[in-house]
């Protein structure tokens, strides 16, 4: 076997695979050796990794497909130094080995895990602090559907934006995995919610979820509609769009309003009225989970385990899963994601 650290140092995993008991100890990965569209994805047999200090080895049963995977595949997501270049940052599976200095996670546990990378694989290493044991009645699909999405939604809505009961929140991309999760979280704390989508089929599903204000941005000006709903403004905006909407967002916020920038569905620069930011004491915060240090990410996972894992285990909140596809259909999964045909999470199962 090769260690996880060795796997990171040898990005393509092309070293001769060692033998264990006379058998090749290899695994299948899905990666993008060259940037491109979904068809750039390739499958490859590589040596199976071995956990280092503080790490656990997970037999992956399912992996969550995220927009950053598609961005990385296309060459639009620079990786932090030393990160495993294989796609995939969240998995569900079973711990099959542990390295030294691992506490609280044991062989045989079924877990959800955040990864630096390497999730599109039959086995993956994770920092034990970034792993959450899941209820026994969960399958790997559910485990893979929650941790990245719930961590991102919690950190942006509550740690950065401090959304409180009764406050007004606009959540863009309501049919996306993070967007739909953020809506369910905002409902759980009693916020007043508006959301946007560009498709009527998704709008119907969002209304069925109980969202009172669903705005189709292809059929009208969402900002004008929001001014009619809340003439004196709103408190929090969960923004997946970026520069195209920033000036309008600042106009919509009231005193001490907060914007969490979570994505960049639009590109380029933004111009906005700085005086409004100053006089209303508006806060603008950016967030992406992957570049967090290991210690910071451990704190993020700890908050997820404390606040939302009990809610998930009790069935009081649940992820929206759009499709579960075989691992070999990774290209199709990326096509669905890039066409925005999904409502909620796309999962690849082993």
Task: Describe, in plain words, how this protein is organized in 3D.
It is globular and about 65 Å long. The longest helix has 21 residues, at 140-160. The strands form 5 sheets. Strands 7, 8, 9, 10, 11, 18 and 19 form a 7-stranded mixed beta sheet that branches. Strands 14-13-12-15-16-17 form a 6-stranded parallel beta sheet, with helices on both faces. The model is unreliable at 5-24 (pLDDT under 50). The protein is of the alpha/beta class and 350 residues long. The chain has helices spanning 4-9, 67-73, 140-160, 177-189, 200-208, 222-229, 246-252, 274-279, 294-307, 309-314, 330-338; strands at residues 2-3, 19-20, 23-24, 26-31, 42-47, 49-50, 55-65, 90-98, 110-114, 123-127, 131-133, 168-171, 192-197, 213-216, 234-239, 253-261, 283-286, 321-326, 345-349. Helix 3 crosses helix 9 (294-307). Keywords: NADP, Oxidoreductase. Residues 1-23 are annotated as: Disordered.
Keywords:
alpha/beta; seven-stranded mixed β-sheet; 11 helices; Quinone Oxidoreductase, Chain A, domain 1; 350 residues; Rossmann fold; globular; 2 domains
Overall strand count: 19
Parts with pLDDT < 50 across at least 5 consecutive residues: 5-24
Rg from Cα: 21 Å
Count of distinct structural domains: 2
Profile the largest sheet: 7 strands, mixed
Q: Which descriptor suits the 3D outline?
A: globular
End-to-end distance = 21 Å
How many DSSP H or I helices? 11
CATH class of the largest domain: Alpha Beta
Summarize this structure briefly.
The chain has 350 residues and is an alpha/beta fold. It has 2 domains: 208 residues, Medium-chain alcohol dehydrogenases, catalytic domain (Quinone Oxidoreductase, Chain A, domain 1, Alpha-Beta Complex), CATH 3.90.180; 123 residues, 3-Layer(aba) Sandwich (Rossmann fold). The protein is built from 11 helices and 19 strands.
